[in-house]
């Protein structure tokens, strides 16, 4: 009889993340097919006068692509939940505390 054993585990990034190139992005475009989602991360920089004139003409600003991630549709709900949880924790730790005294100047 074929008896299957279930093992529960957590996936975590390997410790060698120092070897991975990091990229800054301040814009993300999302596209999908019936099978996967594609996240295209770009860096939008301040526009030159020439770029502003071009954008006025065709209403498009081209931004350099920094990374493109393709993931299966089944992964998207987990990603959304992780982003929502991280945003909740971030908001709680970076929002003003209700009992905090008013600031009397910059805190360094």
Structural commentary:
By secondary structure, the chain is α+β, with helices and mostly antiparallel strands. The protein has a domain at 23-93. The chain is built from 2 helices and 3 strands. It has helices at residues 49-58, 76-94, and strands at 27-32, 36-42, 65-72. A 3-stranded antiparallel sheet has the order 1-2-3, with no helix packed on it. A hairpin with a 3-residue loop joins strand 1 and strand 2 (36-42). The chain starts with 26 loop residues before the first strand and ends in a 14-residue tail after the last helix.
- The percentage helix is 25-40%
Largest sheet: 3 strands, antiparallel
Number of strands: 3
| Low-pLDDT ranges | none
> In angstroms, what separates the terminal alpha carbons?
67 Å
* Strand composition percent: 15-25%
Average pLDDT taken over every residue: 87
Any idea what the radius of gyration is?
22 Å
Query: Would you list the SSEs in sequence order as H and E?
Result: EEHEH
Strand order of the largest sheet: 1-2-3
Provide the structure class: alpha+beta
Number of helices: 2
Shape type: extended
């Amino acid at each position: 009889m074929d008896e299957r054993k279930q093992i529960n585990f957590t996936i975590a990034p390997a410790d060698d993340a120092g070897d991975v190139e990091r990229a800054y992005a301040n814009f993300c475009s999302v596209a999908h097919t019936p099978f996967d989602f594609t996240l295209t991360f770009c860096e939008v920089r301040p526009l030159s006068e020439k770029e502003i004139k071009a954008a006025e003409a065709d209403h498009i600003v081209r931004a350099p692509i920094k990374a493109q991630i393709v993931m299966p549709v089944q992964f998207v709900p987990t990603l959304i939940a992780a982003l929502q949880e991280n945003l909740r924790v971030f908001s709680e730790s970076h929002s003003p505390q209700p009992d905090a005294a008013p600031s009397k100047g910059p805190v360094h």
